[in-house]
Known about the structure:
The chain is an alpha/beta fold.
Amino acid sequence: xxxxxxxxxxxxxxxxxxxxxxxxxxxxxxxxxxxxxxxxxxxxxxxxxxxxxxxxxxxxxxxxxxxxxxxxxxxxxxxxxxxxxxxxxxxxxxxxxxxxxxxxxxxxxxxxxxxxxxxxxxxxxxxxxxxxxxxxxxxxxxxxxxxxxxxxxxxxxxxxxxxxxxxxxxxxxxxxxxxxxxxxxxxxxxxxxxxxxxxxxxxxxxxxxxxxxxxxxxxxxxxxxxxxxxxxxxxxxxxxxxxxxxxxxxxxxxxxxxxxxxxxxxxxxxxxxxxxxxxxxxxxxxxxxxxxxxxxxxxxxxxxxxxxxxxxxxxxxxxxxxxxxxxxxxxxxxxxxxxxxxxxxxxxxxxxxxxxxxxxxxxxxxxxxxxxxxxxxxxxxxxxxxxxxxxxxxxxxxxxxxxxxxxxxxxxxxxxxxxxxxxxxxxxxxxxxxxxxxxxxxxxxxxxxxxxxxxxxxxxxxxxxxxxxxx
Length: 471
């Protein structure tokens, strides 16, 4: 009997050289960057798993469409092609292009949030939370309890706690709720999906209180794949059908197209309501550009439209999510503590369990990212205590439920051989330092605002003057 084989739905046509710097040079460069991996030059990195945002490989079809991009300032043909594809894929009537996801947040929040309003949702990401606060509002996390733990199986850890959502709405009053945000998949919680039932129930609650539901659709196709494979009643549905239903329960969507639209740069706001569409035009012109280009070139818009077609093809999604799963299984076999079940775009290491002796306030996830770079030239990213920042009212550091090292897989870029190398690097750090490190990092310079991009760190020295290793 032949065994099942993983089908790879593409082949390489163009390659880019990469090189591993010597260990001593890696140490020198990360120290020169203040132990912040964002500050490294890309040529300093061997395997770059910092993010899946804008780092994927373009398809031949996307490159072909880019060649016919219409660069007209207003009313570009490429804009209408993108708008048509978003309507076909997601069902929204109107589209406003922006240069990336945080620009969509900026425009939307400028229109919808007034001072002291709240935005309940599931584990707001850093830029999402920052834009809400910049507009004078507050982000309130209503993720289910299962989504606050790295252990234990739940098929949809990104779900909103419906009872908590209703309690928050009643506590603040519906008129103080700007909108309800549904993020699919839920990045800050470990790339966890949201069930269709949960999205439907959030819609029901929103209708009860007269509220808008906004979809953060950065990884909408991956979320649809999980619904198909984990939620009863959807196994025979196509990805297109599932996406259409997901979006039907929402009033609008914001999207960083650098994720599931497979483009290096771009994003959009998509809405159903005529009035909201008109309200969004003026700030788009002010912040981004005319509302039929919004910071995107015609070539970008053509690539985005094709990317929406590419990403909803099930063979692509099955391989994409399967590659992440196989990588995660390599790590679990080595005893690495991960967020379970595995998500769609990344593997998340529970750094508090990885470095069990490092104090919570010494940023174990940031420490792990630094150690992975030193060991093997691998760049990952912290999604935890550094990223979440400080309480906007008290100024105190927020202690998130999870302090995670996110190892993010770019789309259609790395092979399993690359990921096997990364797994070996993680395993080496775990075996050699996981139980020996007793100190982590502290801020050298804490950048204001979204601090994980620009802050610098230094190692905490033990009482004996050592670097933090247990004897």
